[in-house]
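Assess the record.
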Amino acid sequence: MKGIIAEIEKKHMIIITEKGDFIKHSIVSGYKIGDEIELKKKIMNLGIKQLTALAASFVIFAMLITGAYAYYTPYSYVSIDINPSLGLSLNVFERVIDVKPLNTDAEGLIAAAKNIKNASLDVAITEILDKAYETGYIKETEENNVMYVVSTKNKKQETKILSSLNTASSAELSKRSSEYNVILEKVEVKEYKQALAEQVSPGKVILAERLKEAKPEIKLESVKEMSVGQVMQLIKDKDKKKEDKEDKDKKSDDKDVKAADKNDDKATKDSDKEIKKEDKGKEVKGVTEKNNESKDQKDNKSDKDQKNDNKGKDKDKNKDKDKGSSNQSGTGVEAAASGGGSATSTTGSSSSDDVKQEKEDMDKKDKDDKELKEEDKGKQNDSKEDKKEDKKEDKKEDKKEDKKEGKKSEDKEKDNKNSSDKDKSGNGKK
């Protein structure tokens, strides 16, 4: 048990305990008036009448006033919000020295909880939550939300109070429901007193500020009449809508990125296809030009050979013609030398020779025509062979192109496989 030293005499001290009792205690060195002391042994419990009887001097009376002031002076503040909202004032011993209702619902709750004043903080919290359950503010079938706001100038005391609130609340709420939230906040003393001056709990002020972030149009007066659970639900709903919108925007962005990637891949494939098509066209064009060039050379050679053949034939004709003319001339000379009768014979011989020559010329012409037909037939065969060769060349080029395409595809698959193996190897190392 703890107490505060109210007076120090020659042989004893007067101490005010946590419960407000006055105790006479032997002198303990190292302490002075106003210090907190841990009491190990109770020496004497003095009632008010006894103390009055002992107050024979002004010093004793002043000591009593000083001790009472220390006990009843607020040292820390705690506001509680369920839907009933109330405020507790604590002394230096963390005893409840005052309780204030901060809304209409709290008045009935305070009236039901009769054992709050002068109780320790954990006992007071247990009593308040128990009565809140009995009056229907805490329910077994619903999620229960209780909010505490602590305000004190002593940071060490602040930490201690927050811990006590959490422990006592969790122990009591867990008896009623498995779903509950204990919300702990802290504010400066000035802010706490400002909220009380406006007849609103500091907790509701904090909740209103948070709710305004989600719903700017909300007003403090509306929040005052809400339960902590209702306000928390509104905040959660707004946060969920915000998260859903962010998820939707993210999915939309991902979809756009995928569509863009797909379009890029399609464009790349189309581009590669066009390049391959152009390369194939160039190769086919080159082969065609080469074949045409070879064919032109063959045609030129064939025309040249034909001209040479025709030239040789013309030469042979002229030679045969010259020979016939020479025979006729010789015959005429002989006829002139031998006389007139002989001349008639010569003329008959000349006519016979002409017929013979004409026949030979016709035979030769037929032979030449036959040779020309044979040459034309040979050319046609050569043309057919050329076409066959061209087709063979085209097939070879197509096969080469197919092999190139197949090789490119195999190389691409190998590259993809090597890339995949490297990725797997890299992941394995990680």
Summary: The chain has three domains: 2-71, 74-226, 259-400. Residues 53-60, 328-348 have pLDDT under 50 and may be disordered. The CA atoms of residues 14 and 42 lie 12 Å apart. The longest helix spans residues 228-338.
